[in-house]
C-alpha cells in the first residue's frame, strides 16, 4: 500500500475486497456519470489531483473515505453545494448506488475515486489541501485478532493530518465502542490535531441518520462521533 518510500503504511488497508455485482439501476448510473464524475486511483497520473480543474471551480475540498452505498454521502454533498465533495470507495456497486442517489438529488459538486485511500492520500493529494476529512463507520474488524486491520491507526491518521489544511476537521463516527475508544486514543496522540470537544462530539445535525445507523441503534449499539481540528 502507498508509496515505496512509505513502508509503514503498507500494513494498513483502507478497504477489504469483496464481491458484489451492480444492479441494473446502479449500472445505468455508472455508465452515465462515471466518465464525468469518476476516476480510478491506479489510473491517476503522477502527482496531486488538480481539483480546481476537475470541478471547474476553486472551492474547499472535502474528502470522505469509504462512502459505502452513498446514503449519507449523497445527502451531505447536496447539503453543501459550496464545497468540492470527493468520495473514495473501492466497491463498484457502492459507487454506482452513490451516483444513482446523487443524480436523484441533483448533486453537481461530487467527484468519485475508486481505490485505496492510502495510495490516494500518499501520492495524489497535496499536503495541507483538504478542508475536511470524513470517515463514517469504517470496517470495525470486531475480533481482537483483526484489530490490526482497522483503518484508524497512528500511521494512517498521521498521513490524513498531513493532507489537512490548518483548521481543517477530521470527523470520525463508529457504532463499535472499543473502536471508538481506539479512534479517540489514536487521534489524541497525533500532535498536529486537537479534539474540538472533551472526548466525544455531540452528534452533528448535519450527519444524516442512515439505515445502517438506525439498525445499529435497534441492535443496541450507540454511535459516537469525534471531531478533531488541524492545528494552525
Shape, per Cα inertia axes:
globular
Major sheet description: 8 strands, mixed
- Per DSSP, the total helix count is 8
Series of H and E elements = HEHEHEHEHEHEHEHE
Q: What's the total number of strands?
A: 8
* Major β-sheet strand ordering: 1-4-3-2-5-6-8-7
- SSE class: alpha/beta
Radius of gyration: 17 Å
Helix content: 25-40%
Beta-strand percentage range: 15-25%
What's the overall average pLDDT, rounded? 91
End-to-end C-alpha gap: 29 Å
Characterize the structure shown.
The chain is α/β, with parallel strands linked by helices and 232 residues long. It has 8 helices and 8 strands; from the N terminus they run αβαβαβαβαβαβαβαβ. Strands 1-4-3-2-5-6-8-7 form an 8-stranded mixed sheet, with helices on both faces. Helix 6 links the parallel strand 5 and strand 6. Helix 1 crosses helix 4 and helix 3 (71-79) runs parallel beside helix 4. The longest helix is centred in the N-terminal third of the chain and has 14 residues, at 24-37.
Features:
single chain; 232 residues; alpha/beta; 8 helices; disordered N terminus
Itemize the secondary structure elements and their pairings.
Blueprint: H1 24-37, E1 38-40, H2 51-55, E2 61-65, H3 71-79, E3 84-89, H4 92-105, E4 110-114, H5 117-124, E5 130-136, H6 154-163, E6 164-174, H7 177-189, E7 193-195, H8 211-218, E8 224-230
Parallel strand pairs: 1-4, 2-3, 2-5, 3-4, 5-6
Antiparallel strand pairs: 6-8, 7-8
Helix pairs in contact: 1-4, 3-4
Amino acid at each position: 500500500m502507498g508509496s515505496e518510500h512509505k513502508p509503514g503504511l503498507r500494513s494498513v488497508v483502507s478497504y477489504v475486497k469483496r464481491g458484489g455485482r451492480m444492479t441494473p439501476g446502479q449500472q445505468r448510473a455508472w455508465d452515465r456519470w462515471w466518465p464525468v464524475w469518476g476516476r480510478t486511483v491506479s489510473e491517476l497520473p503522477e502527482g496531486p489531483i488538480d481539483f480546481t480543474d476537475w470541478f471547474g471551480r476553486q472551492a474547499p475540498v472535502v474528502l470522505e473515505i469509504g462512502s459505502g452505498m452513498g446514503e449519507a454521502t449523497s445527502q451531505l454533498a447536496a447539503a453543501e453545494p459550496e464545497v468540492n465533495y470527493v468520495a473514495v470507495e473501492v466497491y463498484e456497486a457502492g459507487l454506482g448506488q452513490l451516483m444513482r442517489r446523487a443524480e436523484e438529488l441533483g448533486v453537481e459538486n461530487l467527484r468519485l475515486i475508486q481505490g485505496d485511500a492510502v495510495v490516494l492520500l500518499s501520492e495524489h493529494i497535496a499536503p495541507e489541501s483538504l478542508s475536511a476529512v470524513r470517515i463514517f463507520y469504517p470496517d470495525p474488524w470486531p475480533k481482537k485478532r483483526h484489530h490490526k486491520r482497522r483503518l484508524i491507526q497512528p500511521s494512517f491518521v498521521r498521513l490524513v493530518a498531513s493532507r489537512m489544511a490548518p483548521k481543517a476537521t477530521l470527523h470520525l463516527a463508529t457504532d463499535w465502542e472499543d473502536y471508538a475508544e481506539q479512534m479517540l486514543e489514536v487521534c489524541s496522540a497525533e500532535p498536529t490535531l486537537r479534539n474540538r470537544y472533551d472526548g466525544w462530539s455531540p452528534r452533528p445535525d448535519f450527519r444524516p441518520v442512515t439505515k445502517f445507523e438506525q439498525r445499529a441503534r435497534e441492535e443496541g449499539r450507540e454511535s459516537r462521533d469525534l471531531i478533531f481540528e488541524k492545528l494552525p
